[in-house]
Design goal:
108 residues; mainly alpha; 3-stranded antiparallel sheet; 2 helices; 3 strands; 73% helix; 8% strand; rod-shaped
Length: 108
């Protein structure tokens, strides 16, 4: 027979005859027409799909933002490292000049 009913508590599809025998409406069974139940679940699934898409879109935006920030941090670190290297190169040049001047004075 065609399974035209859905018993919610059992989460099973059942035929019309089973709604009279094994899945008679009561505290343990609640057979409903598949078409009505399917429409309800379809709407719930559509709502969940929309929420999931929105969450995925939000995660994509967050991922893009994080990627941009990481690139910016990397660029900033590279610029700061260059400044540090230049600063210490300048200090070394000053020290080398002072050393040369001191040794020149001692050799006279």
């Amino acid at each position: 027979q065609r399974m035209t009913f859905y018993c919610k508590p059992c989460t099973k599809l059942v035929c019309r005859d089973c709604t009279v025998a094994e899945h008679r409406p009561g505290p343990k069974h609640d057979p409903q027409e598949v078409s009505k139940v399917a429409q309800k679940y379809k709407e719930e699934l559509q709502t969940l799909a929309a929420k999931t898409k929105a969450a995925a879109d939000n995660m994509k935006k967050t991922d893009d933002t994080i990627s941009k920030e990481l690139n910016s941090i990397t660029t900033n670190c590279e610029q700061e490292m260059k400044k540090v290297e230049e600063h210490f190169a300048h200090l070394r040049a000053k020290l080398d000049k002072a050393k040369q001047e001191a040794t020149d004075k001692l050799q006279v």
